[in-house]
Amino acid sequence: MAKQKNELWEWVKALAIAVILAAVIRYFFFAPIVVDGESMMPTLRHQDRMIVNKIGYKIGDPKRFDIVVFHATVEKDYIKRIIGLPGDRVEYKNDVLYINGKPYEEPYLEEYKKNLIDGPLTDPFVIEKVPAGHLFVMGDNRRYSKDSRHIGPVPVDEVLGETSLIYWPLSDFGIVE
Q: Could you say which of 39, 54, 145, 148 is catalytic?
C-alpha cells in the first residue's frame, strides 16, 4: 500500500513539474499563434499555425524583413513583416521599396507582382522617419493588409517576438523567409 502511494505521489510530482515547465516555456520563451486573415499571403495562409520566438528580441534587435507578432489592440495580435527600422525613411513608388533612398528587392512579393493586371501591388507613400523605439510593418498582401500605413508605426515593446516556423498544416511545415 505504501509503495502504491509513493508511486502515485511521484507521478503527481512529475506531472506538476511538466505543467509548470510548459507554462514557463510558453509564457517566457515560445508561444503558438494562428494566422488570422490573408494579410500575409502568399507567405502565410489563413489558419497557418506558427511558433513565436519571444526571447529573440530580448537578446537581439529586430531586423528588416523579419516576420513579427505584435499587440495591435488590447484583444488582437497582428502578424506582419518589418519594413522600416527606427530612423528609416520608407518610400514606395512604382511598386519599388526604397529605404533611406536605396531600392530593396522583396522576393516574397514576386508571386503577386507576376499576376498583377490592374495597378500596383503597393500604392505609393512616403514615411519621412520611423520614430525611435518603433517599427514600420506591412503585410505581404499589400492591397488587403491593415498595417503601419493605417495603424502607424508599432512600438518595439508591443512586439511579442519573431515567427518563422509553420508547424501546421503539416504540408506547409517549415521555415518561411
A: 39
